[in-house]
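Sequence in, structure out.
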Amino acid sequence: MINELSLRETPEGIRLKIFVQPKSSKNGFAGLYKDALKIKIAAPPVDGAANKMCAKFLAKRLNVPKTSIEILSGETGRNKTIRVRPKPGKDFKAECARISRMIRALL
């Protein structure tokens, strides 16, 4: 069975599963882990540092404000579900499509 990324467009934005590997040598994408986008983060999983760095990293790579990245579940674990909201003032559907394409291109 081939793993497929769990990514869904919702009325609030893009809902995505990620798997975070903290304390990595550098920040980066590392393909799929089951149905989640695997992200390596240099920060340790202490006092939310890895979550903050992950949000900052994703925002920069997806060209959205940091406030557009929201952790919906998995705040204290490696498996997380996040929401990416499109940039305010842009066409919502077009921005969701752009973000989805960018995420899929990372694989």
